[in-house]
Amino acid sequence: MAKKHITQVIDDLDGSVLENGTTINFSLEGRAYEIDLSEKNARKLREAFEPFTVAARPIGSSAPGVRRSSGRRAVSSRDLADVRAWAEKNGHSINARGRISSAVLAAYDAAH
């Protein structure tokens, strides 16, 4: 017995079967999304985003060891062991492991 498996990509917006569709990845408020759309619906999405993307600042990808702070300046990677030692010496509450709060990191950056 022969079997034939057919995979169809469906437009996530209108449910139509896609012949020449596209997958669009985007993020909003820190959450990433992916949507399969027909060329027509992809164009509509891009046109809807255009006023916002034109006015927005692109963040792209940073080089390894560099991050962007809320002040939008490049900040080199910190040695977290140094941050923890500094925080303890300067009266900041900090755990020996885990995430270091943004308040402690900001205080460390301001002091260095």
TrEMBL record:
Q: Which InterPro entries does the record cross-reference, listed alphabetically?
A: E3-bd_dom_sf (IPR036625), Lsr2-like_dimerization (IPR042261), Lsr2_dim_dom (IPR024412), Lsr2_DNA-bd (IPR055370)
Q: Which Gene3D superfamilies does the entry link to?
A: E3-binding domain, Lsr2, dimerization domain
Presence of the UniProt keyword Transmembrane helix in the record = no
Q: Name one Pfam family in it.
A: Lsr2
Domain Lsr2 DNA-binding: start-end pairs: 77-111
The segment(s) forming the Lsr2 dimerization domain are: 1-59
Q: Which UniProt keywords apply?
A: DNA-binding
Any single GO molecular-function term of the entry would be: DNA binding
Would the keyword Transmembrane turn up in this protein's UniProt record? no
Q: What is this protein called?
A: Lsr2 family protein
